[in-house]
Design brief:
Helix content is 69%, strand content 0%. By secondary structure, it is mostly helical. It is elongated and about 155 Å long.
């Protein structure tokens, strides 16, 4: 006798399958929750806003009072005068050496012409530096006092140094030095010409240099008070039509062309400076009028 296959109800079958799926989902959720770690949420710092105070403009009187208070603050001490600074032996030696170096540019030709031995030359450089120091300090003191130095005072300052220089050089060499010093401002003028021609095909010769200085010395406006020193007061004779005429009689045509070109440049610069001064004058006058109002 054959067995009949068992009958399975579809409802029961699908119900059982559904229950198995639900149990699987529940188990999966439980396992996932065991291993999952939540991402930390960053905390935002709390910002405290402080209300700003309104800016109140101070009255002009208060501002002026504040400026006066600032001006009343202690100022830095003033630098000591040259006289006080030179009391220190080290400072005096340094300043004297600096003056001697500066004077080399003016007296270099004299040093070569005299042909002194090194010991005498160094003594002369030191004495000339001391002379300039006396003249500089004398001029400074006179300016502070508001009374310019008289010719007698200048002669006394010169005599203090010239006596020592005469003893060092002797009468004949001292006379050469004094002539050189009296024409130093003219030599400064000739030095400019010598530099202008130094890079040209025809540089200035020593004979032309001396002839130029001698010719400049004959001009009425060429006199100078040598008491004022080598690089105080007048540093050189200015270029004029008279110096142009002197140069034309000594220089070659190509050399004179250089000198004349420098003279024309000087005239142009003077014209520009005069025009600028005339333009600035009305502006200053107008500014002064507005200030008065």
């Amino acid at each position: 006798m054959k067995r009949q296959p068992a009958y399975i109800s579809p409802v029961w079958f699908f119900t059982k399958i559904g229950m198995i799926c639900v149990l699987g989902v529940i188990v999966g959720v439980q396992v996932y929750s065991m291993f999952w770690k939540p991402t930390p949420v960053p905390q935002v710092a709390r910002v405290t806003v402080t209300p700003t105070k309104p800016v109140v403009k101070q009255p002009k009187q208060a501002q002026a009072k504040k400026v006066d208070t600032q001006d009343a603050s202690p100022k830095q001490s003033e630098k000591p005068s040259l006289t006080q600074a030179l009391l220190d032996p080290e400072t005096y030696t340094a300043v004297k050496a600096d003056y001697a170096r500066r004077l080399d540019a003016h007296y270099g030709k004299l040093y070569r012409e005299l042909g002194l031995d090194n010991n005498t030359l160094q003594k002369l450089r030191g004495l000339l530096a001391e002379k300039e120091l006396r003249l500089v300090e004398g001029q400074r003191l006179a300016k502070e006092a508001g009374t310019p130095l008289s010719n007698e005072s200048l002669a006394a300052l010169r005599g203090e140094s010239d006596g020592t220089i005469r003893e060092l050089l002797g009468e004949k060499v001292f006379a050469d030095y004094k002539y050189y010093e009296s024409t130093l401002h003219l030599r400064n003028h000739a030095d400019y010409l010598e530099r202008w021609l130094s890079y040209k095909t025809e540089p200035l010769t020593s004979e032309q240099y001396n002839a130029f200085v001698s010719a400049l010395a004959e001009l009425p406006e060429s006199t100078i008070d040598s008491d004022r020193g080598a690089w105080m007061g007048d540093r050189g004779t200015p270029m004029t039509e008279k110096t142009l005429e002197v140069a034309s009689n000594i220089l070659t045509p190509s050399q004179f062309a250089v000198y004349a070109r420098e003279y024309e440049t000087l005239l142009i610069l003077k014209k520009i400076a005069k025009e600028d001064a005339n333009k600035a004058a009305p502006s200053k006058k107008k500014a002064g009028t507005n200030t008065k109002k």
